[in-house]
Amino acid sequence: MPTSYFIRRLLLTLVLLTSPLLVFAQTKANLPPALGSAVKSLIAILSDNDTVASSPRLLRTVSLDDGAPDDYALVSFTLSYFDGGNEYFNYLAAFKRSNTPGSKTQRPRYRLIAAVPVGGKAWRSVDFNHLRYTDGRIEFDTKEYRDHEPFCCPSKPAKAVYLLDRLSLKEIKTD
Length: 175
What we know:
Oligomer: single chain
Number of domains: 1
């Protein structure tokens, strides 16, 4: 057998052996353990056997005007559905932080307030890198699809605005 055959087999073996390491690197999140557990539970509820979740990301902690500093965590994640297609949705989730009552260590717990899809294929792309927050108002840049634009590449600049209160996360139309 030619040498190139063995080299190709060796390269294929290396790729197959290292791909779990690449997947692990992509799924490493910046979430505190208690918040990570709450997000994992949420993703399990929203998922099925054909769903792949991207690494959830803590966007920022914020305060509402109830006196507790940074008591809400805003988290983003993407769910991809492969059952016959390549559809995906970007989600924004809000969690309320509280300390465990009676605990000596005062470990935080996180309770889901709301999780909403905020973008996805054939809808709009979302840029969470420049998220802005003021008094319960969450704003971030998006790109929407123009007429006859391919699903890979939305190009129309826009923004999405959501209102966070103690019980919900709702989109506010800004047209």
